[in-house]
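User: I'm writing a short report section on ligand binding and want a predicted complex to refer to. Could you take this sequence and adenosine monophosphate and write out the structure as tokens? A short remark afterwards would be nice.
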Amino acid sequence: MSMKELYSVRMRAAAGGPHEEGGRHISGAERLVPEGDVRQVVGAMLDRALNHSRGRPDFINLTLEALPAERVLTVPLLPIRTLAVPDLVAGRRAALNLLIKAGVVRCAAERALTALQALPDSMRGAMLLSAATGERLDGYGGRGVRVTRMDIHPASRLAVREALTSYGLGNNHVLEAGILASKVVSAPGVVAELCWSDDPDYVAGYVAIATCYTRFSYLKPYGSPIGGRAFFVREGTDINATISYLQEQPVLVVPGEDWCVVPEAGEARWNF
Ligand code: AMP
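Assistant: Sure. The structure tokens for the complex follow:
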């Protein structure tokens, strides 16, 4: 597939006015596609903004930006595994253990879980936290750091979607989050990401580290419209460089030859 130019297509929707005037975040989406796909992608984003379980937006911002293909970086798609947990407490405990294993200090991981749990409403973006202390490092307040300009390579989208579907993971959540997480862990200084969705019906969440995306079947209470993301960065990281990579660097994610979906397994198997 030859691509001279790619288009970053971005959507954000809010209710009660634009985000910057205090509107409540409803939905957002990010794609990076060849010109021929732009119309279809814009239409799908509009449908999604207008039919979100968090409510009906009265503000929708759609941005299209042409990017020369030579600016686009390629990074590997993380393998995706699911850890079946019986409930939220077990899910959060397993997520905490995995973060610690990845190099996040226990108190930093605990602070992040507490901060995500305490959010009064969903942010549009993510909190950037110190992996050593859990201290918030970005200055973006209630907006957070928004990861943009990423997608799966168009030549791999279908095969990856089919692989996910064959394991019952064909919903948008897993593919989109897998793409986002693959970009996030490729950013300078990032050790791990913790996420749960703001979709009230979707209780799964994940921890991503450099080698794997681990999905936990329960990470938030059913019915909660409040989601969140935390990115942990190691001490001494140039925060501005990390933020600018996350927010601006165009990235296409490509599954390597050994990319796989690991079938669902119970907690014991992962030996936490
Ligand atoms: P979602 O996975 O779309 O349900 O999003 C869950 C939460 O992750 C949202 O409430 C935001 O706080 C955050 N989030 C969603 N998209 C992004 C993004 N592109 N960059 C950073 N954070 C995001």
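A remark for your report: The chain has six helices and 13 strands. Residues 13 and 60 are 4 Å apart (CA to CA).
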